[in-house]
């Protein structure tokens, strides 16, 4: 979960990245939304499996997509490259901390289709 101290720093960067406050205010605060997005990132679960206490999955998904289309995520990343977050650029991770998608393992191997002419030649 995002601590109050960290949120103060993120909030200032987010305010700059969002540029405008056009439209109706969302039912979910920016902090709640970021908690939901970070939960999805941490667990690797599908959007539909977002716990109800973190918000309605479709509302979180649509807001995520709107931010993506408007470039908010890109500007937020750029804004967080300096100041309080400069150390985050040096963050290292190895394969033991990266979770594969749940469908990444156990799938049957794909095989090439056998052509009828190849099958007949084998007789």
UniProtKB/TrEMBL annotation:
Cite the InterPro entries for this sequence: IS402-like_dom (IPR025161), Transposase_6_like (IPR052909)
Q: Which domain of life is it from?
A: Bacteria
Pfam families given in the database record:
DUF4096
Q: Where is the Insertion element IS402-like domain?
A: 2-77
Name of the protein in its database record: IS5 family transposase
- From which source organism is this entry? Haloferula helveola
């Amino acid at each position: 979960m995002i601590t109050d101290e960290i949120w103060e720093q993120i909030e200032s960067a987010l305010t700059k990245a969002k540029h405008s406050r056009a439209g109706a205010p969302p039912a979910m605060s920016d902090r709640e939304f970021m908690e939901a997005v970070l939960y999805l990132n941490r667990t690797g679960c599908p959007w539909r499996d977002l716990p109800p206490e973190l918000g309605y999955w479709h509302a979180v998904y649509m807001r995520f997509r709107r931010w993506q289309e408007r470039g908010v995520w890109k500007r937020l990343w750029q804004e967080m490259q300096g100041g309080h977050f400069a150390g985050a650029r040096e963050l290292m991770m190895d394969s033991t901390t990266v979770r594969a998608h749940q469908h990444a393992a156990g799938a049957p191997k794909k095989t090439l289709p056998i052509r009828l002419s190849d099958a007949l030649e084998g007789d």
